[in-house]
Amino acid sequence: MIAMDGPAGAGKSTVARIVANRLGYLYIDTGAMYRALALKALRLGIAETDPEALAAMAESTEVELQRAPDGGNRVLLDGEDVTAEIRSPAVSAIVSKVSAVPRLRQRLIEAQRALARAGGVVMDGRDIGSYVLPGADLKFYVTASLQERARRRLAQLHEEGHVAELAAVEAEIARRDEQDMNKGVHSLMRLPESIVIDTTGKCVDEVVEEILRHCRRK
Ligand code: DC
Q: What's the pLDDT at 118?
């Protein structure tokens, strides 16, 4: 079991997916599960400031991850494929707030632990090493400078056909960092045992090799 935590836009999901493929492990994108619930809240008109309604919604929702051909995840929300839709700016804008609701988290965390039970997983998120899989064999903290993370997110948004500007993307990521670092036991944090990987100025291959070196050493 490998835990990979870090802030938004650090390149975590790309490298986690490739590392999982190289090791023959299953990649699990926990952020995608929170995004699926945020999407459902948007569709139902449930405000991100209404924890009771969000928790009730989560308890009657099925979020499922399937392995896609590229090793990434297909995300099913009550059986519907929402893989592309959960990346929309509207979802990104509310997901951190939605993911702060304790009962909603509890439901997804149970599912995440069940997925990891058989071992052989690379799980990507914020609280994986600290809370979801504290017994993980290896824990990585993948990060990059705010500017670089904003540039990458912008490129990704453009690729997906969304219209966005750098300053707005940077502000949104900074706001998300702030929220993600203030969620009590689920906060994004560097653990003493985490291996810190700074991806600023590095290409994907370089980062993947760096992580695989640590895995081989283990
Ligand atoms: O990794 P991402 O940016 O797709 O995650 C979307 C949001 O979900 C992010 O703002 C924080 C939240 N999240 C979380 O609270 N815990 C996780 N394990 C993963 C994501």
A: 86
As a whole number, mean pLDDT of residues 94-109 equals 94
- pTM surpassing 0.85? yes
Residue whose CA lies nearest to ligand 1 atom number 1 = 31
Give the Å distance between the CA of 180 and the centre of ligand 1: 8
Whether 4 contacts 128, CB under 8 Å: yes
DSSP SS3 for 140: strand
Q: Which residue ranges form the domains of the chain, and what is each CATH number?
A: 2-212 (3.40.50.300)
- Say how far apart CA 133 and CA 116 lie, in whole Å: 8
> What number does the ligand 1 atom closest to the CA of 9 have?
3
Give the closest residue (by CA) to ligand 1 atom 4. Answer: 31
